[in-house]
Amino acid sequence: MATGHDALREIFVTGLRNAHAVEKQALSIMTPQISRIEHYPEVADRLRLHVDETNSQIARLDEILAGFDTSASALKDTALSMTGGMAAITHSVAGDEIVKNSFANYAFEHFEIASYKSLIVLAEDGGFAQAAPLLKQSLDEEVSMARWIDESLPLVTRRYVQLYAEAGSMEAKV
User: Fold this and answer.
1) pLDDT digits (tens, 9 = 90+) for 107-141
2) Residues with Cβ < 8 Å from 67, sequence gap 6 or more?
């Protein structure tokens, strides 16, 4: 039977693998969005920055996992990347794609925030001190992105309405 510390370690490593897969999923959601955006350059620019942050988050998770003599789950990474890609495709057919993507990105950022908060608790409670600062850095980036989406949603919505009124939904969508 596993000790409390062994169980906490196992849960923590599983959480790290899950977070890694979620970050891969985030890339598969954001990358197609960036390639499609035409009329919302500030959104494309912020997504590009967050792609870079996400790649850094993946590297930090890899570093933490290596400290436990393990690595990410290729199966989880692949599965969540595929679902992220399908989500991106689903929104691409919507007339209000940019608005739907903004809603989904906002929700996804909060999912990631919750994940990192939980991992930080596990790191602190498990005595995995080396992981906490790396996880906090990723948490701060996710909070910043969620805040940016929150603050930019009125601008995106208003620009969508303006473009829709001027040229129709197909022109306004991205």
Assistant:
1) 999 999 999 999 999 999 999 999 999 999 999 99
2) 130, 131
Distance between CA 94 and CA 156 in Å, rounded? 15
pTM for the predicted model, two decimal places = 0.89
Which tokens sit at 64? 């933490």
- Based on the structure, what is the number of domains in the chain? 1
Residue type, 117: K
| Inter-residue contact 130 to 67 (CB < 8 Å) | yes
pLDDT for 87-108, tens place per residue? 665 655 567 889 999 999 999 9
Identify the three-state secondary structure at position 25: helix
- pLDDT per position as a tens digit, 12-55: 999 999 999 999 999 999 999 999 898 999 999 999 999 999 99
When computed from its CA atoms, the radius of gyration of the chain, rounded to whole angstroms, is 18
Cβ pair 145, 109 in contact under 8 A: yes
Please say whether the beta carbons of 71 and 24 come within 8 A. no
Look at residue 74 and tell me whether its pLDDT is greater than 60: yes
What CATH number has the domain bearing residue 147? 1.20.1260.10
Q: What is the residue range of 26's domain?
A: 4-172
Of the chain, the end-to-end C-alpha distance in Å amounts to 54
Amino acid (one-letter) located at 159: R
